[in-house]
Design goal:
By secondary structure, the chain is of the alpha/beta class. It is built from 11 helices and 12 strands. It has helices at 23-34, 50-56, 72-77, 84-89, 109-120, 138-150, 162-172, 232-239, 248-254, 256-263, 271-277, and strands spanning 10-15, 39-44, 64-67, 81-82, 94-97, 103-106, 131-134, 155-158, 176-179, 193-196, 220-223, 243-245. The protein is globular, with a radius of gyration of 19 Å. Bound molecules: NADP nicotinamide-adenine-dinucleotide phosphate.
Length: 282
């Protein structure tokens, strides 16, 4: 943060709808523990108004915003500059406005995903073997980028709609191979990391129907769904003695680079933050 930056310590999260977002609670916790007198506000922006409001925020004192559904693609498209991560993932979730009003787009979901794995499964080694990723939506794109950048040698990708998995495999190159959705339980064999990036297992949705019986001992199982915190997949992993990592930490860690960029301090993800941000239904 520049000493000469005259802007208020102001940021927010743009989405539609936005009232469910945990991000204001998360940032308020960090403001309390760091003593930074910042403000982080929910910004309810209709899709048809996004471009207009996005262009104005840098001139209203905002240092940046997080962007969530449905604005992540537009936030990237309309930015003046974008990081390599945002371009590779094809979406932006963290925006910096420089003092001159330029819009700089980044994506910190891959970072949040990897940091959560490192914290939740200490000693996890990306190069230790193939990963199995289930799902081919927006979150899966970030996860593939994060895993490949971290050095995972091979990713098996399974999705209900095979065409979407194939499109992702094409986009991310030869280290990603598609596995038929019907073969997902077999694809667990030899996988040292298994990730649910579908919305299955969320409260109100059916469980992810997969058997972890063939998973190697010591495999890490991560569910990015965090409502509930303990999904049926994680319960199955624990019952098998595998290492289980829940999805809340991905949400918390993806926010750290934003706090650092806007307010100049690297905040901590710890048990107190997790308690503060636990979803009501968790
Ligand atoms: P998305 O783009 O809508 O993708 C949804 C994925 O779930 C697709 O792969 C879809 O398969 C699959 N799916 C949905 N219903 C299914 C069903 N009945 N059977 C099989 N597959 C099904 O959503 P997203 O943004 O990637 O998010 C996915 C999940 O991750 C959500 O629950 C979201 O809350 C969670 N998430 C968590 C974090 C975090 O920080 N922890 C971050 C982002 C997202 P098809 O392609 O076949 O439709």
């Amino acid at each position: 943060m520049s000493d000469h930056d005259e802007r208020p310590l102001l940021a927010g999260v743009a989405g539609w709808p936005i009232l469910h977002s945990r991000s204001p609670v998360l940032f308020d916790h960090w403001f309390r523990v760091t003593g930074i007198a910042g403000r982080y506000v929910p910004l309810a922006i209709r899709p048809e108004r996004f471009a207009e409001v996005y262009g104005v925020l840098p001139h209203a004192g905002f240092r940046g915003i997080n962007v969530t559904i449905p604005h992540k693609l537009e936030a990237l498209r309309l930015a003046d500059e974008a990081t390599e991560a945002a371009r590779a993932i094809g979406a932006a979730n963290m925006i910096r406005f420089d003092p001159a009003g330029r819009i700089l787009a980044d994506n910190t979901d891959a970072y949040g995903f990897i940091e959560n794995l490192r914290q939740g499964a200490p000693g996890w080694m990306p190069a230790s073997g193939p990963a199995l990723v289930l799902g081919a939506g927006g979150a899966a794109r970030a996860i593939l980028h994060g895993l490949l950048a971290a050095g995972v040698p091979q990713i098996r990708l399974a999705n209900r709609s095979q065409d979407k998995a194939e499109a992702l495999a094409d986009a991310f190159g030869p280290r990603v191979t598609c596995v038929p959705w019907s073969a997902r339980s077999d694809a667990v064999n030899g996988a040292t990391l298994i990730v649910n990036a579908t919305s299955l297992g969320m409260s109100g949705k059916p469980a992810l129907d997969i058997s972890l019986a063939a998973a190697p001992a010591g495999a890490v199982v991560n569910d990015i769904v965090y409502v509930p915190l303990e999904t049926p997949l994680l319960a199955q992993a624990r019952a098998r003695g595998l290492r289980a990592v829940d999805g809340l930490g991905m949400l918390l860690h993806q926010a750290r680079p934003a706090f650092r960029a806007w307010f100049g301090v690297d905040p901590v993800v710890d048990a107190a933050l997790r308690r503060a941000c636990l979803p009501d239904a968790a």
